[in-house]
Amino acid sequence: MDEVLVGRAVQGDQAATESLMVTSHARLYRVAFGVLRDHHLAEDATQRALLTIWRDIRRLRDPAKYEGWSNRLLVRICYDESKHQRDTVSDPGSRAADALRTPDPYGAVLDRDQLERGFRRLSVEHRTVIVLRCLLDLPMEQVAEALGVAPGTVGSRLSRAIAALRAGLEADARTPTSVPVPQRVTP
Fold first, then answer.
1. Which residue in 63, 76, 84, 108 could disulfide with 7, CB within 3.0 to 4.6 Å?
2. pLDDT digits over 98-153, tens only?
3. Rounded distance, CA 2 to CA 4, Å?
4. Can you tell me the distance from the alpha carbon of 40 to that of 36, in angstroms, rounded to the nearest whole number?
């Protein structure tokens, strides 16, 4: 992130703040969707995060810490959104429409769908650590800062998250064993 731009936003430069919002949107949305797995919820979380950043940017003491600070805000908002996600039914039609717009070969679509099912089974905490560490490729220290935990905790959460994802994918890959249907015997 451009520290000069963040510094100008912290000082109250409206144009810099607007530019910062535009440059931050894609990164924040990517994280939110990775955690929430729902486009509508991710957009809501991103908008809430941008609004909070807009409102509180002047409180940021060190412009170099902007990315970690904004990630931490977003993660908290995603956790909050995930609580609401359990109470609402997601629109499967929107996901199907998104899948139709993606020009993937058939095999890649199946792989992506299987991975998506496995990822949705993970807890929000596990999805978050995978998104921040693996998708965004943030160093462990930045992930720890975004989550508000120690770097060692990030390592253990990441290990458990990957193990849970792997177990879910392996369970999906197993075919159910057929149970023989008893034959009717006539005397």
1. 63
2. 444 455 456 666 777 788 888 888 999 999 999 999 888 889 999 999 999 999 99
3. 5
4. 9
Predicted confidence (pLDDT) per residue in 70-89, tens digit: 999 999 999 998 887 654 44
Contacts of 60 (CB under 8 A, 6+ apart): 6, 10, 66, 69
Cα–Cα distance measured from residue 172 to residue 118, given in angstroms and rounded to the nearest whole number = 8
Q: How many CB atoms lie within 10 A of CB 79?
A: 16
What is the rounded CA–CA span in Å between residue 113 and residue 99? Answer: 9
Closest CA to 38 of 154, 159, 124: 124
Percentage helix, strand, coil, to 5, in the chain? 80, 0, 20
In terms of phi and psi (left: phi > 0; alpha: psi -120 to 50; beta: otherwise), the region of 90 is beta
Name residues whose C-beta falls within 8 Å of residue 39's C-beta, 6 or more positions apart in sequence: 33, 94, 95, 98
Domains of the chain (ranges, CATH numbers)? 1-88 (1.10.1740.10), 102-173 (1.10.10.10)
Chain centre to alpha carbon of residue 12:
30
Question: CA distances (Å), 4 to each of 8, 22, 28, 94, in order?
Answer: 6, 15, 20, 39
Q: Please compute, for residue 43, the number of CA atoms within 13 A of its CA located in the half-sphere on the CB side.
A: 2
Retrieve residue 58's tokens: 């002047």
What is the tally of helices (H) and strands (E) in the chain?
A: 9, 0
